[in-house]
Specification:
Length: about 100
């Protein structure tokens, strides 16, 4: 199967299926060989979609020199996340 064909199939899948971030975190951590010590990374990024800013808080795990996203929250506001928002994201992950 050609690369473009696979890409189009993935795009169609995500267009019609909601991605549950709690499930993603369980799947990703089960696939990775993380051992006993995990390095969690919490970061916020903002993207611009036309004139609309999209503000995302992402919880990732460091693995083999890259940050692998585990859970994310689209913040419905501009600017930084609050301590409560960050704590909630980490708590949700630890409770899974």
């Amino acid at each position: 199967m050609q690369r473009e064909s696979v890409y189009q199939r993935v795009k169609r899948f995500f267009r019609h299926h909601k991605l549950e971030t709690d499930l993603v975190s369980v799947l990703v951590t089960s696939w990775l060989d993380l051992g006993d010590r995990w390095v969690l990374c919490l970061d916020r990024t903002t993207w611009q979609l036309r004139r609309t800013p999209i503000n995302v808080l992402v919880l990732s795990v460091a693995y083999a020199g890259v940050s692998v996203p585990l859970m994310w929250t689209v913040l419905g506001k501009k600017g930084n996340s609050s301590t409560e928002e960050r704590g909630q994201r980490v708590s949700n992950f630890l409770c899974n």
